[in-house]
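Field reference: sequence -> structure
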Amino acid sequence: MSNAVRCCSLLATLALLGCPPVGEKATETGASEHTGNPDASCPSAKWDPASLTWTNLAYGVAESKSLTLLNDCDAGDDLELTLSIDAAEFTASPTLARLGAGEAATITVTAEIDSSGPIEGILRIETNDLANAVIEIPLTASGIGDNDEDGYVAADDCNDDDATVNPGAEEQWYDGIDQDCDGNDDDQDGDGYVLAEDCDDTDASINPGATETWYDGVDQDCDGASDYDQDRDGHDSELWGGDDCNDRAEAVHPGTTETWYDGVDQDCDGASDYDQDGDGQEAEAYGGEDCDDTNASAYAGADEIYYDGVDEACDGGSDYDQDGDGEDNNAFGGEDCDDADATILSTATEIWYDGTDQDCDGASDYDQDGDGADAIAYGGTDCDDTDPTSATGGAEEPNGLDDDCDGEIDEGLYTGGEVLVVEVLSNPALVSDSYGEWFEVYNTTGVEIDLYNWVVLADDGGTFTITSSTPVAAYGYALLGVDADSTRNGGVTLDYAYSRADFSMVDTDSIELSIGSTVVDSLSWTTAWPYAAGVSMILDPDHFASGSTVDEWCESTTPFGIGDLGTPTDENDLCPQFDHDGDGYSGDDGDCDDDDAGVYPGAFEADDGLDTDCDGVEESGPTAVADYAAAAGLTTCSPIQLDGSASTDPEGTVLTFSWELTGAPATSALTTADIVDPTDESPYFYADVPGTYTFSLVVSDGGADSLVDSVSFTVTSRSTNATPAADAGADQTLTASAVCTPISYGAGGYDCDVCSTQVATLSAAGSSDADGDQLSYTWTVTSGSTYGTLSAASGDSVMLSFADAPSADSVTTTTTVTVELEVTDCMGATDTDTMDVKYECTGT
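Structure field:
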């Protein structure tokens, strides 16, 4: 084709595409609006894209692509173009002749091929743009033809060189050729599993990934296992001819180990899971009766084999208690000496002298008292087989018996004074002597003494033997009399009654107590003794001893029974001739309660309803109550307030207080003098060291002092301390005048007296301590000491005196003294302050 023809075609095509005539700017479809490049000189060629490529072209089918050309400038020469292609498979349409400044146009390039290619060509554009005189755009096309002419192009045909292979061909399975081009030659049923994996490649529901349907005879998941063994334990379900009793539990099948008592028949033997030993009874822990489910010979109802340690019968009884009496055989650690007889055991009551050891104590059946000697009646030597102390060669005991079977009673066991006669009523007044006579004995020892077989003897020959057990408690009393009937004997209860025909007492008589050959006590009296009708004679309680004399006896003052005086079976009255409580006064001295050391003539009379001073009047004195205020804390150096505010006076009299420090730690240097105002109701105290402090308080109502009351508390070390603040007070000025007399001789002038002495009071009252500590004060003159003198170096208030200050006529002379105050708290912390005192002396 000539250039003229190409140009005409190009113009025609431009018109068809809606392009403007050459020389006009393109604004419609197929060209891009361009305002020009003011920086470029015309002509200036631009194109896009740089190459064109076709793929998968069908044979004989044309396919077009576009290319854009642009004269990229605002003004100047037109861009002249000549287009040509060097390959017949490509055509260009249209061919441009000229583009004005800023004009653009689209070229269509069409490819049509008859082989798969690739086919390559060059679109050559010659221009008058010196910078781009020849533009070459590469063209490439590849096809998808049907080489084997089986009706399927290469894009669809998986083998375009074999007419038997195409998407419409019939697949020949497993020959290694994909005839129907579906990519599958080994999975006939299309279930995703090839023949090597799929156990049935004609059924898509059967493959390794399928869900097994059990018991239908089909191996859906291709695992090769039995379709009747769902739990895959190697045993088919017993419902399908197998022996697995639970085909859903892998651990359950014949041959597995049984897990007992979980309710599961793991080994499928059909037996109870609660009968481990297979004896036909389930374990009692799971509702059965078998007490040992690991032993087939042990179950309820089995024959018991005794002494083998096994409860075969499961009756819960000891295997070592054959007779069932509750005690094991002593051959197996028990106490039963005859395990075939239920009446013989350690707790049984012994039947003496029958030859059987019922209580299994191993002792002789003919030694009832267990003293090691058999009864004489059964060939032994024991004269009293009910008394363990009675046996030939045995030891004599203080019991009124012949323990050693030698014919004597309690020989050698008692000494004088162990039992005493301490009270005698031989002449009752309110009842007849034949009913009311009695005497009392006292046990001076710490053990009980039985008077059985003791002998009582009077000097007139009267005597009796105590024929029944009459125990006297340790440090206790026993009453012996002529009549046991308390309704006629004066109202006493006797421990032993004797016959008055055998023993009676008169105004001059005696009583002797003996056991065997030992006289334990002997008492003789005469009319000179404290002997009166209806009044018992008593031995003073502080003089209980054998061989007492009239000086230790007195008349009782305590009524008993129906009205006679005496203390039968009770502690004797105190004889008035003795000072029993050690308060310095006896009853004869006026002590109205000689058993209380706080009661005596002149004693303190408390508000307790008692006549403690024995004046016959129940007065009342004040009561001291010592306490402390714990709220402030108990630490060293801190103020501790004592508190006597709870002290009282029955009459409401105003009280005075007297506090004393009566106890302090050994390292404390404090005394009562260190109590701040010890006569205050609630004074303060500052502890110097940790430890326990004790304070006593006595209050007075002006007529009587209280008893002493005390309070103690423990002080600990204070862990913190605040520095005190010193305050010496404000500066002061003192003034004085002196008389000046003219001098009439010599040079003249004045002779002035010294100024009078002046005194300033200095006070540390403004000083303080945040902890409330007591402060000590030290005063020092630091300047001006020639004229100023302190009255003291310490104290909360001191005096500063000025004396002999010089003066001059009509002149005021000022002297200044500076004083320093140092305050120190209990823990040694200090602070200082200074103040000035001016002394102005004027001569007149």
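Note: Residues 3-17 form the longest helix (15 residues).
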